[in-house]
Amino acid sequence: MDKPVPPLTPLAEAGEAHAGQPIAAKPASPPAVTPPVAAGQTLLPRDAHWRRVHRMTILLLLLWLLTGFCAAFFARELAGLSVFGWPLSFYLAAQGASLVYLGIIVFYAWRMRKLDRAAAQATALEPHA
User: Fold this and answer.
1) In this structure, is residue 91 part of a structural domain?
2) Strands, E assignment, 30-84
3) Within-domain flag for 4
4) Is 60 exceeded by the pLDDT of residue 126?
5) For residue range 86-103, what is the model confidence (pLDDT) as tens digits?
6) What pTM does this model have?
7) What separation, in Å, do the N-terminal and C-terminal C-alpha atoms of the chain show?
């Protein structure tokens, strides 16, 4: 029942013909490592992308912190104002903060998709060494 297994043959290297197949081109060399950006030079698209992402993330986290902090910290002052018959502090704690958080998530997803697509296009157009 057991058939003998034929011996393994080494795979053809790039540029060698193998069993009637056309000769494959040698793989391209990896891209050269770029030196750090000096004064007066432009940033790489990847560096610019991550700066934008970090700046946006920090701003959205600050908005999140202020929304949660201000609703609790200024609750007594906001209690004098009313929205639809409810004190503004209650409305912010129960509904407003949740809506702001949802808005932050939606904005982050929309903006990240836009930034990632722009970075992918810039990387695709970037010449390789």
Assistant:
1) yes
2) 82-83
3) no
4) yes
5) 787 777 777 778 888 999
6) 0.55
7) 55
CA distances from 65 to 77, 91, 101, 106 (A): 19, 17, 10, 17
Q: Does any domain span residue 34?
A: no
Q: How many CB atoms lie within 10 A of CB 23?
A: 11
Q: How many domains does the chain have?
A: 1
**Any domain includes 105:** yes
Q: Which residues contact 34 (CB under 8 A, 6 or more apart)?
A: 44
> Considering Cα of 87, then 93, then 94, then 99, what sign does the dihedral take?
positive
70 Cβ neighbours under 8 A, 6+ residues apart: 92
Task: Give the phi and the psi of residue 86 in degrees, each rounded to 5.
Answer: -105, 150
Range of the domain at 68: 45-123
Q: What pLDDT digit, counting tens, does each position of 1-43 carry?
A: 567 766 665 555 545 555 555 555 555 655 554 444 455 545 5
Average pLDDT, the chain: 74
